[in-house]
TrEMBL record:
Taxonomic placement: Bacteria, Pseudomonadati, Bacteroidota, Flavobacteriia, Flavobacteriales
Protein transport among keywords: no
Subcellular location as annotated: Cell outer membrane
Domain (Outer membrane protein beta-barrel): residue spans on this chain: 301-709
Protein known as: Putative TonB-dependent receptor
Alphabetical keyword list: Cell outer membrane, Membrane, Receptor
GO CC annotation: cell outer membrane
């Protein structure tokens, strides 16, 4: 006789049918399937279009052995260039698992560069974000992490070495993951000791009555040292199938001992006849310290109806930054080695920001395939800023009370939204409306002035997608966005960089309101063409101004009239052969900005330019197991306008080779960025009585070596039937 049941070992015994037989209780032993190893073959990343976003799936792909910043470099529609990330020519807002990252652009880049990509499932590129997301900012990059189903522990260690023509840069980190039946925990730590060099040649012509009366030529050299540390962690606890609690932390620490900047510049002053009149040398030594601590707590309750849920999220960011600089300037006459005048000043500045948010979101699906979403959010921001400047008189340090100030800024935001989405066989539709109320107050103790601004805005969004035959798709989207002024842009301090240059903000800045349209067509799920149009009202611009009368260089944050841009983008991610894949992103776009010339009778100045951007990356795989890969990328951008300045075109070539070994536990990559050292650029500002030229040279060409080793529970001992493979910004102080 044989007894069997699915998932249990078979029970067999011989019996004698001549008489009664008592088998007593038969206990079946659970059947186990032992898998010696699960081998995941690296595949090409895939792209999927949803009604409101593009999803770039990278899990277990050839990009999994890199870092998240490298993944973004290969993500359709995303441009990573000159240390910045942009989508449709604007900086995006970064989210991780639908939680906003409250970091400045530089801090976000450091975080992504120090985070391994082997825990990343997909990158969602949301060019026109729906009502659920904050109306603040441009496009959204939502980084989705993998939902690991493997119980136990595993981790990795990783490091990189980058060598420029002047200084080396290092990165070292480790990540750890643990999962039990109810608890999931993840932590990542990385440190990035580095030193960067920059050289500028600057030429300024001071103009009076349409004639050049003086010219300054400056040789500027800057060394910047840092050793930033990032610690990110997540703990998720599932009480049951319906309730879960999540805690996450994201911390950036930049200790004072390793955060130093040294500037050595020599300026030669020429008269109208180009004869050397005098010169001055400036030494600026700066040390800083930064702590950016962000904590989030989230609770999710799932109802009996499938996909119906309510979530509650709390977040707090504590940002503390301080900086001390010492500036010495010596003035010389031609062919005289001793200075005829010396000047020295010191500044101490600090910024403390406390940001707290609370949010509730509700999702209600219906039986007809539609989804209704609604939510509310409240934000409280307090920013305290201090600037103390000191002058030296006969060697005695004295406070410069005319350039010392305390600026206190408070902001409250209240938001609510509704959204509706419906899918049919060939059509998808989504529409939403978000309302936000903002109340701001800025107080300067030096000027004894208070600026308040209260406003309410509506932010509609609309999306429609039609799936045609042969995997073709056509889609249309629209939304309205807002850019609130950054804290440093509101700060009225005159922060002097040397005797003749300073940066200042304006507490009366208005928010920028954007309207954005996109019309796209995808052929065979492979080739995508997008037409876009964007109009920006009252954008904030850091406007460089040369004061011809007082021989000063000012960088002033101001609202300009408007920006307007439109263009045609083309992207594809396709296979040429079995071992050769191709990614192409190209853009032909028109950009126009209109600004008032501050200091020149506020005349309206207009700049316009058609520009071209192209990025072509070839991916190659070698060997039978595809354990050896290489990619060669070429990117080019023609000249374009950035505010009042024209930025020259540039071309770059990157090469990278990656080898995995030890059963895919380890990987080694070697590459060269900017192979021909052609990514340096010039910046020309020339309008009315402004004439300013800068030629920048940085360590763009880098030899890159990276290593990654994974350890822990990569072998499974589970039932076969259970195996399932599941595919902070405004804080700026420079």
């Amino acid at each position: 006789m044989t007894i069997s049941f699915l998932g249990f070992e078979k029970f067999s015994t011989k019996i004698n049918l001549l008489g009664n037989v008592n088998l007593k209780t038969v206990i079946l032993e659970e059947q186990k399937e032992t898998l010696d190893a699960v081998v995941v073959t690296a595949k090409r990343p895939t792209v999927k279009r949803l009604v409101d976003r593009l999803v770039f799936n990278v899990e277990n792909s050839t990009l999994s052995n890199s870092n998240v910043l490298d993944v973004l470099k290969h993500t359709p529609g995303v441009i990573v260039r000159d240390g910045s990330i942009s989508v449709k020519n604007t900086p995006p807002v970064v989210y991780i698992n639908d939680r906003r990252v409250h970091l400045s652009a530089d801090e976000v880049q450091q975080l992504l560069e120090g985070t391994p990509a082997n825990n990343i499932k997909s990158i969602e590129v949301i060019t026109n974000p729906p009502a659920k997301y904050d109306a603040e900012g441009g496009a959204v990059l939502n980084i989705k992490t993998s939902k690991n189903i493997i119980a136990g522990y595993h981790g990795s260690v990783f490091g990189s070495y980058n060598q420029g023509f002047q200084f080396p840069k290092y990165a070292l980190g480790t990540s750890h993951f643990f999962k039990s039946q109810k608890l999931t925990a993840y932590i990542n730590y990385n440190i990035s000791p580095r030193k960067d060099f920059r050289n500028n040649f600057e030429d300024i012509n001071f103009i009076e009555n349409n004639n050049t009366v003086s010219s300054w030529e400056t040789d500027y050299n800057r060394d910047r040292e840092s050793a930033n540390q990032n610690i990110t962690g997540t703990i998720n606890y599932d009480f049951n199938d319906k309730n879960s609690l999540n805690f996450s932390a994201n911390t950036l620490i930049a200790p004072r001992a390793n955060s130093k900047t040294s500037v050595n510049s020599l300026t030669e002053v020429f008269g109208a006849s180009k004869v050397l009149d005098s010169s001055f040398r400036t030494l600026n030594n700066l040390v800083s310290e930064k702590f950016n601590l962000a904590f989030s707590l989230g609770y999710i309750h799932k109802f009996e109806r499938e996909d119906e849920q309510i979530s509650i999220d709390l977040h707090h960011t504590s940002y503390d930054f301080s900086e001390f600089q010492n500036v010495d300037t010596d003035y010389f006459l031609p062919e005289v080695s001793s200075p005829f005048r010396e000047n020295r000043f010191q500044t101490f500045s600090s910024q403390n920001i406390q940001l707290t948010t609370g949010q509730i979101d509700y999702v209600l699906p219906s039986d007809n395939g539609s989804v209704f979403e609604a939510g509310i959010k409240a934000v409280s921001i307090n920013s305290d800023n201090v600037l103390d400047q000191f002058l030296f008189n006969n060697g005695n340090r004295e406070e410069d009370i005319n350039n010392s100030d305390i600026f206190i800024y408070d902001e409250k935001n209240y938001a609510g939204y509704v959204s509706y989405e419906k899918d049919w066989e060939q059509w998808s539709l989504k529409a939403g409306l978000r309302v936000e109320r903002t109340e701001t107050k800025g107080e300067s103790l030096l000027s004894n002035s208070i600026n308040t601004n209260n406003y309410t805005n509506l932010f509609p969004s609309f999306y429609v997608l039609n799936r045609l035959k042969n995997d073709d798709e056509i889609y249309l989207s629209y939304n309205k966005r807002i850019y609130r002024p950054r804290y440093r842009e509101l700060n009225p301090f005159k922060y002097y960089l040397n005797d003749n240059a300073y940066i200042t903000g304006d507490p009366g800045l208005l928010p920028e309101i954007d309207d954005s349209f996109i019309l796209g067509y995808t052929i065979n799920s492979t080739y995508t063409f997008e037409l876009y149009y964007r109009y920006e009202k009252n954008p904030t611009l850091e406007l460089p101004i040369q004061d011809n009368e007082n021989r000063l260089l000012k960088n002033v944050f101001t609202n300009i009239d408007h920006n307007e841009s439109y263009g045609l983008d083309f992207t594809t991610y396709t296979g040429i052969t079995k071992s050769w894949n191709l990614y192409v992103l190209s853009s032909l776009f028109y950009y126009e900005n209109n600004f008032f010339a501050v200091g020149t009778n506020n005349e309206l100045v207009s700049n316009e330019r058609w520009s071209v951007y192209a990025n072509v990356i070839n991916y190659f795989s070698f060997l039978e197991d595809n354990s050896l890969t290489a990619d060669i990328g070429v990117d080019y951008i023609s000249s374009l306008f950035l505010g009042p300045s024209e930025i020259s075109g540039r071309l770059g070539v990157d090469i990278n080779v990656n080898k995995t070994f030890w059963n895919n536990r380890a990987s080694l990559n070697i590459g060269v960025r900017d192979l021909f050292n052609t990514r340096n650029f010039t910046q020309t500002t020339k309008y009315l009585n402004q004439d300013w030229f800068v030629d920048s040279n940085m360590e763009n060409r880098l030899l890159v070596v990276g290593f990654n080793y994974k350890f822990g529970n990569y072998r499974l001992n589970v039932k076969k039937d259970d195996i399932e493979l599941i595919e902070r910004d405004r804080l700026e102080k420079e």
